[in-house]
Amino acid sequence: MPIKALLFDLDGVLYVGEQAVPGAAETLAWVEERGIPHLFLTNTSSRPVEAIVDKLSHMGIPVDAADILTPPLAAAAWLHEYVEGPVALFVPAASRQAFSDLAWLDEAAESGAAAVVVGDLGEAWDFATLNRAFRLLMADRPPLVALGMTRYWQAPDGLRLDVGAMVSALSYASGIEPVVLGKPAAAFFQAALSRLGCRAQETLMIGDDLVSDCGGAQQAGLKAALVKTGKFRPQDLQQSIRPDAVLDSIAGLPSWWRDGD
Predict the structure, then answer these.
(1) Chain mean position to CA 7
(2) d(CA 227, CA 21)
(3) Per-residue pLDDT tens for 187-211?
(4) Which residue, 12, 74, 71, is CA-closest to 45?
(5) DSSP letter, residue 214
(6) CATH number at residue 33
(7) In the prediction, which pLDDT does 48 show?
(8) Secondary structure class of 6 (helix, strand, coil)
């Protein structure tokens, strides 16, 4: 089935660190000119959507906030629907505004959480913080809500652990399976498809993470393209997950699309 819609990862695809990927702005302009339905799907939980838009704008990449889907937004919607009571937030301060309509558990409490929400705290993770999240899970057995399961990301100084490592540790210790609201969870991709009004088989996910982007998309029935920027490593091409396309960078999308036509 021909590809009719696109989902873009951000970090590692449109930019790496504080630098735009060469050709990213031109590729998005091409997408706009062709009227191709698209959304930006990111596991970033360390900054609000407005900050993402501002960062992209400074790189010469104009993106509408309404076209970005993040795990905090998806998690807040899920919590509103399924959880009653205060939530324990283990997310950066900048991301807390997504949960502003919910009751928050006191940050010193070690029991009483209706849900434990875990995002990318980066260097703010320490033993005491991780252990408090564990105690909250063990005290009342609330849902463990993961803002994605990304294993690591490409920082300016090298690879860094991401939220998936912390969620996996908490899940292993507590025995509670996480509710994942971010890539690679199928529900996250389905939320994007619902926004686009497109079917999975006619939608292509473009990312730099073989597991979260490509594997997650394919499990949800989408096609997937892996770019050789960001966290890409040559050994990715030797793994069991086989992307439907491999691009040197996002700049190669227009020519790949034309060849497909």
Answers:
(1) 11
(2) 11
(3) 899 989 988 999 999 999 999 999 9
(4) 71
(5) I
(6) 3.40.50.1000
(7) 83
(8) strand
Structure tokens at 195: 């926004």
Q: pLDDT digit string (tens) for 107-138?
A: 999 999 999 999 989 899 999 999 999 999 99
Is it the case that residue 1 has pLDDT exceeding 80? no
3-state class (DSSP) for residue 34:
helix
SS3 at position 172: helix
Structure tokens at 115: 């849900």
Among residues 149, 180, 211, which one ends one of the domains?
180
Q: How confident is the model at residue 261 (pLDDT cuts 50, 70, 90)?
A: low
- The label of the residue with tokens 């997310």 reads 91
Angstrom CA distances, 129 to 105, 153, 180, 224, stand at: 14, 21, 20, 36
Strands 158-161 and 152-155: antiparallel
Dist CA 63 CA 152 (whole Å): 25
Tell me the per-residue pLDDT of 24-37, one tens digit each, with 9 for 90 and over: 999 999 999 999 99
Could you tell me if residue 50 is inside a domain?
A: no
* pTM tops 0.85: no
Domain that holds residue 113: 71-180
Residue with tokens 């873009």: 8
Q: How far apart are the first and last CA of the chain?
A: 11
**Sheet containing 38-41: order of strands:** 68-69, 38-41, 5-8, 203-207, 223-227, 245-247
Pair of tokens at residue 76: 């807040």
